Amino acid sequence: MSELSPLDFDFQLPDDQIAKYPKSKRDEAKLLVVNRLTKELTHTTISQLPNYVETGDCWVMNNTKVVPARFYSDNGKFELLRVNARTDMLWECMAKPAKKLQVDSTLEISGVIGTVKAILDDGLRLIEWNKPLDLDAIGELPLPPYIKRDHQDTDYNQYQTVYAQEQGAIAAPTAGLHFTPELLNEIPHSFVTLHVGMGTFKPVKADKIIDHPMHSESYQLPATTADALNQAQRIIAVGTTSTRTLESIATNLNITKSNKTPWQENQGDTNIFIYPPHEFRAIDGLLTNFHLPQSTLIMLISAFLGEGIDTPDSPLQGRDFAMQVYQEAIDNDYRFYSYGDAMLII
Question: Domain 70-138, CATH 2.60.40.1530 — does that match?
Fold first, then answer.
């Protein structure tokens, strides 16, 4: 089997194609439609998505809601990103500068004192507060670092999907940011929840991607969505987080595209890592934004584009197609990453 490395999924992107702000109207974003069978590429806009809906479709969307999880100490010396709250007063956090927050170190946020109780995997700090902190009052939405601008009040609305409901994410499921209420009404859809955490955006630092550890993220598939999936003739995932949720549950329930195992209400944690070659159990199509080089997300995209073509001995045909698609987007001035444009793979 070929040993894939992060460099197998690298590409060069001009800085001016990294979107710092969203479109003024969500569905005005560009859309690159990719036909996996014919390799045809079609340029259109998100507003035209209803033209790609087929009878019997179920488009599955992640209704997680981003919480204001970035905090700054009162003295301005520390920045925290709350990755997970074990309780209201015991948090797992990414910290800057981490070296100055050793075990038993303290910091103060809005008059609340936190003590570092432990240093966890990947340098996360386990911090215990002497009373609960008010996230809404003092926290900021954690915009991705590549946006390279200060947080603004408009981000509270723009960096949430219009259907965000279940609080718990530290990053938005960005493919869903393109939907307006009006567009949503034209797309047959159901919801899952995956609270986006470190597992989605943690960079791959291992020399071989097979050695990359994925952090667990919690998910839920309600009974109403399970019913919709059982009726569906085609399942379209809106975003990589919806994809990972569906593929995790399909694995748990032993669902494949060739058997009749029914979908059921399901919840739990997943650390699924999808990379070439991969046989998808659940999805038939995918709406997604354009992702960072060498990220787990572009590996997932490559796996989907190579489904049925990639093999353990030759796992990169899907990657080659993904690079072709990404170059097409770059050449046509598509905007990349969280606030950028999208592609629909069918």
Answer: no
User: Phi and psi dihedrals of 264, rounded to 5?
Assistant: -135, 155
State the Cα–Cα distance between residues 232 and 31, nearest whole angstrom.
Answer: 24
- Sorted by sequence, the CB contacts under 8 Å of residue 242 that are 6+ apart come out as 60, 61, 62, 173, 175, 192, 194
Give the pLDDT mean for 70-96: 95
Question: What's the predicted TM-score (pTM) here?
Answer: 0.94
Q: What is the pLDDT of residues 331-346, one digit of tens each?
A: 999 999 999 999 999 9
State both tokens at 178.
Answer: 């393109």
Of residues 271, 324, 327, 274, the one with CA closest to residue 300: 274
β-strand pairing of 30-34 with 217-221:
unpaired
Q: Domain extents for the chain? A: 6-67+148-345, 70-138
Contacts of 121 (CB under 8 A, 6+ apart): none
Region of 65 (left: φ > 0; alpha: ψ -120 to 50; beta: rest) is beta
Which CATH superfamily does the domain covering 6-67+148-345 fall into? QueA-like (3.40.1780.10)
pLDDT in tens, 142-160: 999 889 888 888 999 999 9
Pairing of strands 125-129, 189-194: unpaired
